[in-house]
Amino acid sequence: MDSDSDSDGSHVSATPPRDPFPPPPPKLPQPPRPRQAPPVSRKVASSSSRSKPKAPTQPPPDHSQEAPSPSSSSPPSPLFTNLPFRICEPSNQSQPAGFSSSVSSFNRLRKASLTSEDNLKSEFQSDAVNHLPEPSQSVIAPPKPVRRKPPNLITDSITSPPVKAPVFRSGGEGNFVKLNLNGKRGKKFPSKYKGVSKSRSKFAYRGKRYKKSEAAGDGESLLEEESDLQKQREEEANGFISSVEDAILAVKSEASDENLTKLLNLVYGYESFRDGQLQAIKMVLAGSSTMLVLPTGAGKSLCYQIPAMILPGITLVVSPLVSLMIDQLKHLPSIIKGGLLSSTQRPEEATETLRKLKEGIIKVLFVSPERLLNVEFLSMFRMSLSVSLVVVDEAHCVSEWSHNFRPSYMRLKASMLYSALKAECILAMTATATTMTLQAVMTALEIPSTNLIQKSQLRDNFELSVSLSGANRMKDLLNLIESHPYKEIRSIIVYCKFQYETDMISKYLRDNNITAKGYHSGLPAKDRVRIQESFCSNKIRVVVATVAFGMGLDKGDVGAVVHFSVPGSLEEYVQEIGRAGRDGRLSYCHLFYDEDTYLKLRSLSHSDGVDEYAVGKFLTHVFSSETKQHEKICSLVIESASHKFDMKEEVMQTILTHLELGEVQYLRMLPQLNVCCTLNFHKSSPNTLAARNIIVAAILKKSHVKQGLHVFDIPAVASSIGIATTDVLAEIQTLKMKGEVTYEMKDPAFCYTILESPREICSLSSHLTKWLAEIETCKVRKLDIMSSAAVAAINVSNTSELSSGAKQTQCLQSRILDYFNGDEKCDIPSKMTQNCSFLRADIKVFLQSNRQAKFTPRAIARIMHGVGSPAFPNSIWSKTHFWGRYMSVDFRVIMDAAQTELLNFVDRNSALAT
Ligand SMILES: Nc1ncnc2c1ncn2[C@@H]1O[C@H](COP(=O)(O)OP(=O)(O)OP(=O)(O)O)[C@@H](O)[C@H]1O
Q: Got a GO cellular component term for this one (predicted)?
């Protein structure tokens, strides 16, 4: 597939699906009158003195509010044609029976069914402008230094003088191929490079003189001064470059600690390496593939940037998110020339990047896994480019046992990276991986166990706390933010699970005079960029965000991260709190825990599950005899297939990727595209064009005419004359440019070519289903472990002599570290039951009153848990009285009960029929 994935990567995940029809948000609580204490008493370092806010002023007008979309009206009936359990009597009922608006629990259940956590599509547009109204400066005064730790000693407690700001890092423009040596750097990062700093101060002096002479009208001397300045700048730049070149040469001849530290100091301005950096850099320079596990904000990027300066070939950095790539590109030191290839680029931009790659201008290329393995890209490397290093960033995405498995990362197998790219070395990096995940990643990337560099996965500058919360969570949040130490903190991120929450909570905070903005993947890219920029420039104090915000965010002074809901896993928790305290200062992380939200998320973890039966049907379709023809381009229209097999797009993609990259390569994936094309001929007649154009001739053969327009399937046309779909697309594009045609495309589809048909669909589907079930179980377990840790922290605060904050920090820290070391502590939630006397009776009533639908046990269990699926969407099924009624009963228990009742139901119906 050729589309860059820029989602958060929660494919086949425990995360809730996007809900196009969220029910109206619950009513906002009134702002609290008397100030209450924060939910948990937190121990605060006495030296903590982030400055107090002055009286809040009016918040800026909010432009980001979104009304929840209305529900769709007509119920699409599931398209199962041959389900194991057919409930056949068709009915013209458009709503599921059992709907009762008078049921008291209905609203609660509806709320519980809300889905829509972000599978973000972060397409940052670097040209976005910040138009946010600037809030009054009096909202928050600048913080005083708090118990500051030197930033390069993240895991140390030794005090040493703070590291000076770095030199020569690129400015806000980012490092888009050009060297950025034109002076911008000086504004943000005071130089440590001696020659430069001296002359920079000279600039300041000369600048004043310049103004004086200007006032005096001395034109000639002005020109002279200007050219002097220019010369001096060039000399300095040359001086800097030649110093760096000398330092690089020194490292090339001997990669000693001293030489590397000198280079670090010159390029970044840092005094010393942080724990793990030097070791990783040396391993990579020695050509040893390495697995690097360092905490968030520990400086992993530097571990490939320095080798990129030394190694002769290109460094390819594979990243899961486009936004992350853009961020990393921006943060490259100006001396390293970088580039990026993503599907969000305009074709001219991609062509330009490819040109620069071929010409050797680009040294570090950021690329998505899909792009990396695209045929054109690979052939370019085979022909002319040498790859010294492949960096797999967020490497946990390779493993299905991680919290963020991405099918496209399955492509990153060492065998492929070595053979197709001729990569000399692989560096895999992550901040959050359990032992099991690490093993899977290292096996896939063929990294020897001796080449693991692993430091503690948690920084020690967090104060972690949890409180039990409930219906008044927003009020609790406000109380927290208004109480010490949060009220003194200038930048806070509040993480929540659902898009509607980000809008609702940020509005509530604004209504209470806190500058806040909601952020989620549903916002236009420009708005997202604007919000991030306003946050980074301290115009917004609080960003209320889904998981869409934060990856790659390197704002040093985020002082607090608040979790409005329990995260999906300890990995997610660690990633998100990792946005705080990146400057090494003590930072505060609070989690509001409530069991109902936990149960709701637990139910949603089942939204990706599939049954063997559905997988079998899917495989039969993929390998159907019609599409078996060798080299024929097959396509699977995503929306209709998703509805037909009741499978989410990500699940279908996972199965297809497995069919491509598993032990047997059954198929080859091709770029995803809109397959249905409607063509309108304008100038020449279709037949005249067909007579001189083979592609048009094939289109005429394969199309049907509807209201004078030719409608055809692009893969069918491509297959009929043995060309690629991209060739067909290119041709119609050319015809359009010539004014011959206009066209419209629809129906996004997976495209593939079958290489080998499985001998037995049954055993393949059973194998795949088992694998997918294990992934589903793993996601649920991760959530259970997270929840257990939160509950343990709440409980511990009543039972120890330490202050509440310290006890909770200690408890959570040890849970997190144990978890990453493979020791999973997990208690089943108290509200979860394995039994319920009314369950089977309710399922029976439900089946009887919805005779028109064709259910599977899983579909029934989802409805009882209040979880929508492609064939049984929320918009329709949330109206049933049974929706979400059994959220606290184990999903498997409901599936078993549903299976029994479905069999009884079928038996009863067939008895009646005979
Ligand atoms: N040796 C060092 N001394 C001081 N600061 C450093 C050092 N190395 C890196 N940094 C700084 O630490 C910050 C975080 O670095 P970086 O973004 O590479 O972290 P990361 O490990 O990739 O974090 P995350 O996993 O959260 O993305 C950056 O601002 C970087 O410049």
A: chromosome
Ligand 1 contacts CB of residue 169 (under 6 A) = no
CB atoms closer than 10 angstroms to residue 856: 25
Euclidean distance between CA atoms 7 and 118, whole angstroms:
8
**Residue with CA nearest ligand 1 atom 16:** 299
**Cα 330 from Cα 94, distance rounded (Å):** 52
600 vs 407, higher pLDDT: 600
Nearest atom, ligand 1, residue 163 CA: 4
Q: Is 300 in the pocket of ligand 1 (CB under 6 A)?
A: yes
Dig out the tokens for 130 from the structure.
């910040």
Contact in structure between 305 and 169 (CB atoms under 8 Å): no
Ligand 1 closest atom vs CA 277: 1
Token reading at 262: 């000198």
Average pLDDT, the chain: 74
Identify which has the larger pLDDT, 137 or 386: 386
**Contact call for residues 191 and 200 (beta carbons, < 8 A):** yes
Cα angle 453-458-462, degrees, rounded to a multiple of 5? 155
pLDDT in tens, 398-442: 887 777 777 778 777 777 777 777 888 999 999 888 888 899 899
Q: What is the fold, at CATH topology level, of the domain defined by 462-593?
A: Rossmann fold (3.40.50)
Identical fold, 251-454 and 462-593: yes
Q: How far apart are CA 153 and CA 156, in angstroms?
A: 5
Tokens of 645: 């097999």
Q: Is 298 in the pocket of ligand 1 (CB under 6 A)?
A: yes
* Strands laid side by side in the 338-341 sheet: 338-341, 364-367, 314-318, 387-392, 426-430, 290-293, 452-454
| Token pair listed for 528 | 């997202």
SS3 428: strand
Domain segments of the chain: what residues? 251-454, 462-593, 629-756, 838-911
Q: How far is the CA of 554 from the centre of ligand 1 (A)?
A: 8
Residue nearest to atom 8 of ligand 1 (CA): 299
* Phi, psi of 338, deg, nearest 5: -120, 165
Pairing of strands 667-681, 709-713: antiparallel
- Tell me, using a 6 A CB cutoff, whether residue 163 lines ligand 1: yes
In angstroms, the CA 720 to CA 581 distance is: 59
Q: Does domain 251-454 have CATH number 3.40.50.300?
A: yes
